[in-house]
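A reminder before we start the practical. When you read a complex entry, don't treat the lines as separate problems. The point of joint prediction is that each chain is placed relative to the others, so the output describes one connected object in space. Small molecules and nucleic acid strands, if listed, are placed in the same frame. In the example below there are two entries. Take a minute to note the order of the lines before looking further.
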Amino acid sequence: MEDIMSEKTGKSDQAVRQPMPEQKAEIRRRNFEEVPYGYTEEFAVKEAERCLECKKPSCMNGCPVSVDIPDFIKFIKEKKYTHAIRKIWEKNALPAVCGRVCPQENQCEGQCVLGKKGAPVAIGNLERFIADMERKNGKGDLPPKAKATGKKVAVVGSGPSGLTVAGDLVLKGHEVTMYEAFHKPGGVLVYGIPEFRLPKEIVFSEVNFLERLGVKLECNVVVGRTVELDELFEQGFDAVYLGLGAGLPKFLNIPGENLIGIYSANEYLTRSNLMKAYLFPEYDTPIVKGKNVAVFGAGNVAMDSARTAMRLGADTVHIIYRRSRNEMPARAAEIHHAEEEGIEFSLLTAPVRFVGDDKGRVTGIECIKMELGEPDASGRRSPVPVEGSKFLIECDMAVVSVGSGANPILTGTTKDLGLNKRGYIIADPETGKTTKKGVWAGGDIVTGSATVILAMGAGRMASDSMHKYLTLGW
Amino acid sequence: MFEILRREEMAGGTVVLNEISAPLIAQKAKPGQFVILKANETGERIPLTMADTDPKKGTITIIYQIVGKSTSLFKSLQVGSHFQDVIGPLGKPTHLEKLGTVVCVGGGTGVAVMHPITRGLKEIGNRVIAIIGARNKDLLILEDKMKAASHELHVCTDDGSYGHHGFVTDVLKDILAKEDVKMVAGIGPVPMMKFVSKITAEYKVKTIVSLNAIMVDGTGMCGCCRVSVGGETRFACVDGPEFDGHKVDFEELNQRLQAYKTEEAEATNKYTCQCKAAV
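Here is the predicted structure of the whole assembly.
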């Protein structure tokens, strides 16, 4: 583990953040194994000792589900690991996931007092450490469940928000059935986030935990098609949570976009992650292995797509983004990892049209240079094309990763479910209640594409409200 | 797990019928809708339009041609064994309405998909003329069923070994010249659907075709099945599978269906070798 990522280090011991040991970039760029190895116990305790145990911990303000961060870190300091995991579980059912995929730099770690002068406490790395330790060494004890209430809850979607709601409500004594349209549970954690960032074994272990608690899982059920929402109430469910995810890919809407070799990020990642096309022909689902790859967009999903293409054997991978580095929405760690792995960034560059050969395969992308103009509605300086700056980037594969819209398959078949102009479900920001009685919603189908932890936060809020409804009334 | 209750081989073993236990889907499915099937853990998700459903028995029927690794694997499944995953019903059902005289054209295994639509159009009160075709007599499927589902059946073979010697489009042209046809439905290989649409365009007769684009999720999430219809990109899985044949870009569809030709050949070869080695 000598290959250690260098991080900013200060002068005193307190300021030295324990680096995360990880696979060397030149090796990992060609394999699908997880990039960071995780802290050893020694590293974890040392890192925990950096925490100042602030009386008014600002880190907690940065956490969408308000994990008692100083408390769980204190237990790590004291090597009371079971206490530490229990403390996290009080607020967060998926710590092994969040420790890996949360944008900590904008959340807990972004608020850490130590960050003002040096490096903040590595809260994410510690969360991951304690969750992995429990998974590997824990006795698998189940938390206590409340007495059965006799109420039945349907959770539609088994992504981060659905898993949170299912876990919360089963512990409160309700009978929970979770529906998943795909053949495997986990939602975006399984079809979207690659193995090298979030091993699927971790997600399945979390789902298995819920099943052991009594959650009934029904895969291959497309609510809105296989069964309609109103039929769930006819079948005896008392409340329904909709954690559908965004689930409608956005394209660039430029000429040539239907050429072979051009994928939406949803398709590219689903093929690779859920269908395991990276193991073709051992697995039957194929994927185009591009030699020169272009990825449009600069969010986490774009980084995942670019890094996947590199692992599938690309010679060059270009992230093409119409704004500048400062506006890139991806986590800092993902951008850093992508750069280390040889992903090139073509910034202030926008696609104009795709070009292809006579077989209908993509061969290149005509682009135009951009410059930053006035700030737009999002507060970011909007890019403006530079006249006469068109140029061609050769590519034999491209991934469009410019966000998602709202999938209408359920919302289009359900009466009385209020939607906003863009097709997302309208839900009360305090409770997650929709306009339809007995139905709650949260996550990307309400907010549009966001993060795992925000979806979990929405799930937590809704499950509190659902519990009140099931015990007290609407 | 979805058990196979009945299995038949047709067209000299090149086409297989499976009746599968899938009660939830059987209750909901309507003509023109499809399911996605996955044989086992390592399998691919394959979309197939249902050939029949029996809500009382809780079964759906699929009829497929053996074209590559995945369909060969499907073929190896015997009665009593299972598909690991079946998802559906997906896509929009066929819009069935009483119009007068309608023509249903089915080619190859497309006849299997055409059958419930033909039956539905007859039940609703249309005068239904059906035309079915195959390369030769041995490859022809569901002749009796199509006869029962229509008022008038024409059979064509490319080599003349049975029925009319020639393409389904020849017969279609004759009918369009003689009859006041209100609508044509064409389901079969892409070139057939393309030519059916070309001919009906000359006669200005409304035409629907069912597109067999490559898919992954089948719920509009990935955009793999995008097709150009009237110059706009549509998803075959949620906006279709049926579209106005006069607006479909068949060239693009045909090219996109070849996207994984190399990989498919590789997988099929590997599978065939393994099967031979096992024997």
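Discuss with your neighbour: The CA atoms of residues 52 and 233 of chain B lie 30 Å apart. What might explain this?
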